[in-house]
Amino acid sequence: MTTAATPSQPFPVRFYSPTSSVPDSYGRTLGSILAWPDTALEYSHDYIQNLFPLPERSPINPSAPIIDEQTFTTFRSSPELQNQLRNSLRRMLQFYGFEINCSPRGTNAVAEDSAYQVRPGPNFRSASLKWVKRFDHNHLRITRIIRCCRVLGLEIEAAAFFDALLRTVVEKRVVISQKTVMFWRRAAERPLYLAPEEEDDGGRGKEWLYRFEEGKETQGKA
Questions:
Q1: DSSP code of residue 17
Q2: Are residues 71 and 94 in contact, defined by beta-carbon separation less than 8 angstroms?
């Protein structure tokens, strides 16, 4: 059963709600952005924070939506919202030249480690020209996408994307800076309370994410 978003809920929940489809400040809905051609996705720079918000406020766009504890909890308890987020991930994977190889249950099914893979698609050669280079603004977008998906519950999908990126770097011998790969790895593997740009491995970051990770660790020991 789909629950409609209410005006009191955080913007990411209302923006991603399949029943509400609340537009952003420019009047753009999730569906309209995902229908953009690749050229619009490449040259517009103010949509990615709506598609993939982070717990950390953007220093470049401080008014961009963020993931607060309510957004975190709502997404992780809502298959409908997570399926909408998968649609965004799928569109951006296509933009970067990748495709999803999923189980027969379909690409909106709950992903399983052995059933969900990301691999170069038919358009990889042309699409990769946008971002397979030493430095590019899309590298920051990719870091954001991986972190957002992990925080909002798409851990398997985020890991599959990261694995595909690493295979691209190693197998195709592309020149991408080591610092970029480090940020991708941090986004994919660090505890959720540590942002990729955080240099203190002993930091605690967002307290509610720290509590969440502590809870997981406690459950794992039980």
A1: -
A2: no
Placement of tokens 């009047």 in the chain = 27
Per-residue pLDDT of 56-67, as tens digits, reads 998 888 889 999
What is the pTM for the complete model shown? Answer: 0.92
User: Distance between CA 201 and CA 222 in Å, rounded?
Assistant: 26
* Distance separating alpha carbons of residues 129 and 79, to the nearest angstrom: 34
3-state DSSP assignment of residue 184? helix
Place of tokens 């954001």: 144
Q: At what angle do helices 207-221 and 69-76 cross, to 10 degrees?
A: 40
Alpha-carbon dihedral 37, 42, 45, 48, rounded to 10 degrees: 70
| Amino acid letter, 5 | A
Contacts of 207 (CB under 8 A, 6+ apart): 193
